[in-house]
Design goal:
By secondary structure, the protein is of the alpha+beta class. The chain has helices at 5-16, 24-39, 80-88, 104-110, 145-168, 173-213, 219-254, 268-276, 279-284, 304-323, 357-364, 380-390; strands at residues 41-50, 55-62, 74-76, 92-95, 116-122, 131-138, 263-265, 287-293, 300-302, 331-340, 343-350, 395-401, 405-413. The N and C termini lie far apart (48 Å).
Length: 417
Amino acid sequence: MADPSPLLGAVRSAARRLASTGHFDHILRDVLVTCVDAVGAWGGTVYLHDPSRRELVLRHVLPEEVASRLPIRAIADDFGVAGQVFQTRRSVISQFETDDPQRKPINDSFGTVITSMITVPLNMEDEEPIGVVQLHNKIGGPFNANDAAVLDTVSAVSTMAYLNSKLLDESTRASQLLGMGKVGHDIKNMAFALEANVSFSDETLGTLRDELREQAEIEIALNLVEDLGLMFHDLRESIERIKRYATLMSDLSAGKTLEPQMRLMPMGVTIERAAAFLASEARSRSVELLYDVEMDAPPTMHDEMYLLRIVQNLVSNGVKAVSERADHRNGTVIVRYRFQDHAHVLEVIDEGPGMTREIAERILNGTVRSNWMQSSGSGWGTKIILELAATHAAKVTIDSVEGVGSTFRVTFPEVTT
């Protein structure tokens, strides 16, 4: 039986990206890397569907140096194995003869003989596929059903990340909220299905552990089972985060009263991890993301998911502000967190165009979006920050100087019980 840890790691890694507001193209490449590493493949490709042309368009290739050698950048959406998988929405495992003359042009392009391939649709239940992922030449043996099952899950999660990123680009609050509710519903369904599978696996693992404990001579096997138990624990925590994220988005879209789950925890780790989700987007916009986080600050009562969303929205706004400067000068976004005067203070400082005091006040009143967001947002991201902060009795303020930049500050009161 293959070592399941890389496969479980793939699911965890893809699930973490659901909270990211980064551009999907960067998320997509990360997911391809995750898939290749998870199954031990030599390389892979991702195609996205262009409905207007009915084509599957090549977006990413691994190894990256292969990209320049590929003669075809798009194929008909019903052509070959990729087209079959796209049309049927079912994964396919393929085996090829090493001396197949029809495969020679492809092998020459990749610079290696492709003898095995797994093709997985990028889709989720009841939705049209958005493309396909193909992985080539599994190292150490052929692709199998376990690979297909995990890749199906990773592909579905990445599809939801794509739909989520499209929602963030909607021009009106109404269309954005409607989409978030739908994505939240789909995420929740998948999370509960994953949770059920993990629960059944956990029962089997427990039975196996009990059996092994009666046979001391197989101590190594028992240690491996214990390691698997820790992996399942991590996976359950990831599933719980997905469920909570879906619930939060659904509640926001439906206008429900928010009910944070307050726990006494340090804030520093969550703040740094949340900001790190935006690192790839910042790099793509030539923005330097810096951290000044006090990790040894005392714990305080807060909802981890709510804090994660506040940080990500603030950092995403800061990155946009810097990248949309009129002079197109590179700049920085600093994520700062301090415990001072019996309060926990989160600041996101950007070198964007800044804004007038009037506009800052209107943003804090929830009546206008930032003037640097051009036409790409509805201002709903700032409204989410205000609503989530209010559940913690936190105060949001803005210090800004036109032509210099802005500091968005969220001050959380110290609460220990």
